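=== RUN LOG ===
request id: a7f3
mode: sequence -> structure
chains: 1
length: 167
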Amino acid sequence: MGALDELVYLMEEAFRGTGIEETNETQSLLGNLRTVGEDAWRTPPPGGSRTIASIVLHIGSCKVMYADYAFGPAQRRWDDPSLVPWTDDDVPRDAAIDWLVAAHRDLMAHVEALSDDDLGRLRMTNWGEQRETRWVLSTLMQHDVYHAGEINHVRALTRSDDRWKWA
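=== RESULT ===
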């Protein structure tokens, strides 16, 4: 495997990895989203304001923006109403997850078209800074895992069960 193949593998694991199948434990973004019911989808945690629905919109919009800037014409803007198909108040769970999967698939089509030699190439970020392709891909992978943990935590808080199984 080349370096790009490894990055693609890691990005896919961060997004949709199955983890430990025997115990249904995963740190992946989709793995954590699969455990979110309608009750927790739009419910902010006690003392908080970000819902899992709003987190999913954030993740998907970032995938769209990073793809547009790193691999496309770099024309999208955060205030573009077409960037996200719903408002925070009206996000249908299944449709939003489908939209997130499509945004990831579109991003990964660009990534999979790269070669190992492209990993050092500078690419534009959505805040106007040029970064190496490997940095952009690493950031996208970390972004998925970061928010998977956040989703896990928000879900636990909305269920009043914020403890480790083995604690």
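=== NOTES ===
The CA atoms of residues 11 and 141 lie 5 Å apart.
The two ends are 39 Å apart (CA to CA).
=== END ===
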